[in-house]
Amino acid sequence: MGLSHFFNGGYMDRPTLSPKIENKLGSLTERLKMLYSDGLVSVILYGSAARGEFKKKHSNINLAVVLRDMSLENLAKAKRDLSSGRYAMFNVIFFTEEYISRTRDVFPIEFLDMRDNHRVIYGKDVFLGIDINMKHLRFQCEQELKEKLMQISGFYLVNRNKKILTAFLYKSLNSTLHIIRNVIRLKGRVPPLDKEGVISELSREAGSPLVSMSGILKAFKNNTSLSRGDIDKLFFGFADELKDITEAVDRLSI
């Protein structure tokens, strides 16, 4: 079922962005309508900004623009606006409806996030009811979790700066939780919207608390200054928890 019950015609129940950003979003949408006219199918906000978790310094404002023609020559109509800096806060990605249909098997995590966390700004809701094969989802979850584990280990071994290591911990946790939301989907459950809820849900599934992941999130939210020992402990624990999750996904039968 996904999270479609949180939506009404593709719109979230509450504002998710500041008035300033909403105004720029409206301005960009009007520019796209002017540039593409009937060739513009949809403008859709998705991800953390649509989920209500947008943090200015740590989140992207993801925008899907669906056109009838995705040739580079056609996309180039928006080059001046997108390269001007006025809309630099937006991460814009272009699709056609056919491209979405043919690519959802390759990027099931991304399209599930779009389906379950989006807000239609203009046009057709192309993500509503999109179907994803759970075998494709399990494969991508396993692949990305294993890649994430290698990234964490490699980064820790070649960096000594506490500030850099601390920032990497939160960045890695944030992207890992994005994958874990989909691990929860593999278990037939609707993933919570908030990060604490995702960690709690997976802790219940694992039968033990994810102490390090919870610790990283708590340290970030409280702006805690971590000692070298704290950083090492969180890295070691995070890697162990991630290894256990990866092995569980590897054994999962769909």
Tell me about this structure:
There is one protein chain. The chain is of the alpha+beta class. It has 11 helices and 4 strands; from the N terminus they run αβαβααβααβααααα. Strands 3-2-1-4 form a 4-stranded mixed β-sheet. α8 crosses α9.
Any descriptors?
single chain; 254 residues; alpha+beta; Beta Polymerase, domain 2; 2 domains; four-stranded mixed β-sheet; 56% helix; disordered N terminus
Question: What's the short story on this structure?
Answer:
By secondary structure, this protein is of the alpha+beta class. It has eleven helices and four strands; from the N terminus they run αβαβααβααβααααα. It has a four-stranded mixed sheet with strand order 3-2-1-4.
Major β-sheet, in short? 4 strands, mixed
Mean pLDDT: 89
Record field, number of beta strands = 4
> What's the tally of helices?
11
The largest sheet has its strands arranged as 3-2-1-4
Following the backbone from N to C, one meets helices and strands in this order, namely HEHEHHEHHEHHHHH
Instruction: Give start-end ranges of low-pLDDT stretches.
Output: 1-15
Overall structural domain count: 2
Q: Helical amount among residues, as a percent range? A: 55-70%
Q: Which value, in Å, is the CA radius of gyration? A: 19 Å
> Briefly, what CATH class of the largest domain?
Alpha Beta
According to CATH, the fold-level topology of the largest domain is Beta Polymerase, domain 2
What fraction strand? Answer: 5-15%
| CATH hierarchy: architecture of the largest domain | 2-Layer Sandwich
What coarse outline follows from CA principal-axis ratios?
Answer: globular
